[in-house]
């Protein structure tokens, strides 16, 4: 019985070629293995009106809660300013992330994710679902990064670990605040709301560091392939480089431009289920560019593994059958985009 998030991911071992990234520092042209066919959506450039931009919400705004509700319904994502996370905490972690990915490949490979593992260095977990490789390196953290950091920096891992712990603590406070607001919007009872903050209830947390090196042929490459996040929601910091896009019905791929000291929040599959489809979970992807390395820090937050997921608010029939977080993770690991459909139970 899996009790930690990393154990929950162990059931679906990957092949090494789905884990080891290309040594991007040594390639000068785009290999065929990394060349993606361009789709209609990419060639078409939609004109975006004001209503077609992902909302930026000020957490100190008296209407913040209502605006978050609307953004989750219309977009499944929003940007958040005045979020209360000290700028220094984010900057420090971005610097550590750059220091990590700048290491020689051989050093990073010391913390390579194992076939049945969930943490450490390597390609995105969704890689096996796509025929081409992504222009991307990742580093996944669940709980303490100590074991993986020690493999990379045998003697001076303390700085990295402290900065990660600090970031994680700060993110958790923000995540609990957002959970409370979102549950209030959904009209969830005081009793049910407590899981996010109660002391004997351990939420699932994970951090993914993403690195998208400059790419010689960015138009034919893919940084991170389209996916939805498995979380309740994800809080993302992107370095000041474009690339993130969200798919919006009727508008196509909409860019999420970075703004200083602004975090992106993605509604995840779990919130989509709990809200009985009232809140969207946005399909998103990352494009690369030829001039700048891009980095992002994603914090995934969700209910405990044994938490029974079933729509919490019902104005109509439930769209999903009841299943635990752990069961949902298992279905997603084998079906990716099909997981939500399978979970409807019909
Ligand atoms: C807690 C999580 C959430 C994971 C799996 C696990 C650790 C790494 C996360 C990501 C990060 C990159 C995109 C994604 C789609 C991927 O490939 O790995 C995410 C996935 C998910 O949201 O399902
Ligand atoms: O790099 C980004 O901006 C997005 C990363 C992402 O979607 C993820 O880690 O799940
Ligand atoms: Fe994502």
From TrEMBL:
This is gibberellin 3beta-dioxygenase. Pfam families: 2OG-FeII_Oxy, DIOX_N. Its cofactor is L-ascorbate. Pathway: Plant hormone biosynthesis; gibberellin biosynthesis; Hormone biosynthesis. One of its GO terms (molecular function) is metal ion binding. InterPro entries: DIOX_N, IPNS-like_FE2OG_OXY, IPNS-like_sf, Iron_ascorbate_oxido_reductase, Oxoglu/Fe-dep_dioxygenase_dom. It comes from Flemingia macrophylla. Keywords: Dioxygenase, Iron, Metal-binding, Oxidoreductase. PROSITE patterns: FE2OG_OXY. Its EC number is 1.14.11.15. One of its GO terms (biological process) is gibberellin biosynthetic process. Belongs to the iron/ascorbate-dependent oxidoreductase family. GA3OX subfamily. The lineage of its organism: Eukaryota, Viridiplantae, Streptophyta, Embryophyta, Tracheophyta. PANTHER family: 2-OXOGLUTARATE (2OG) AND FE(II)-DEPENDENT OXYGENASE SUPERFAMILY PROTEIN-RELATED. Residues 200-303 form the Fe2OG dioxygenase domain.
């Amino acid at each position: 019985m899996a009790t930690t998030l990393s154990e929950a991911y162990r059931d679906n071992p990957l092949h090494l070629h789905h884990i080891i990234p290309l040594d991007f520092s040594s390639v000068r042209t785009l290999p065929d293995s990394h060349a993606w066919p361009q789709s209609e959506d990419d060639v078409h450039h939609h004109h975006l009106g004001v209503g077609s931009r992902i909302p930026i919400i000020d957490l100190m705004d008296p209407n913040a809660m209502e605006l978050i509700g609307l953004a989750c319904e219309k977009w499944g994502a929003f940007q958040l300013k005045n979020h209360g996370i000290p700028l220094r905490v984010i900057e420090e972690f971005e610097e550590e992330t750059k220091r990590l990915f700048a290491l020689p490949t051989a050093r990073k490979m010391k913390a390579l994710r194992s076939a049945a593992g969930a943490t450490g260095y390597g390609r995105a977990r969704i890689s096996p679902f796509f025929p081409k490789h992504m222009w991307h390196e990742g580093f996944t953290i669940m709980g303490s990064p100590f074991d993986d950091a020690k493999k990379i920096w045998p003697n001076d891992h303390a700085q990295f670990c402290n900065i990660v712990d600090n970031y994680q603590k700060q993110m958790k406070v923000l995540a609990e605040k957002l959970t409370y607001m979102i549950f209030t919007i959904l009209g969830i009872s005081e009793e049910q709301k407590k899981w996010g903050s109660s002391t004997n209830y351990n939420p699932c947390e994970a951090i993914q560091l993403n690195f998208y090196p400059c790419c010689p042929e960015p138009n034919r490459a893919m940084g991170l392939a389209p996916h939805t996040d498995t979380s309740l929601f994800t809080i993302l910091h992107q370095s000041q480089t474009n690339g993130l896009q969200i798919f919006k019905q009727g508008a196509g791929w909409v860019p999420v431009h970075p703004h200083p000291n602004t975090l992106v929040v993605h509604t995840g599959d779990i919130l989509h289920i709990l809200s009985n489809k009232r809140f969207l979970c946005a399909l998103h992807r990352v494009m690369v560019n030829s001039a700048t390395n891009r980095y992002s820090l994603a914090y995934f937050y969700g209910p405990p593994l044994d938490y029974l997921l079933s729509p919490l608010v019902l104005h109509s029939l439930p769209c999903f059958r009841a299943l635990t977080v752990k069961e949902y993770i298992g279905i997603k690991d084998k079906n990716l985009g099909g997981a939500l459909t399978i979970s409807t139970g019909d």
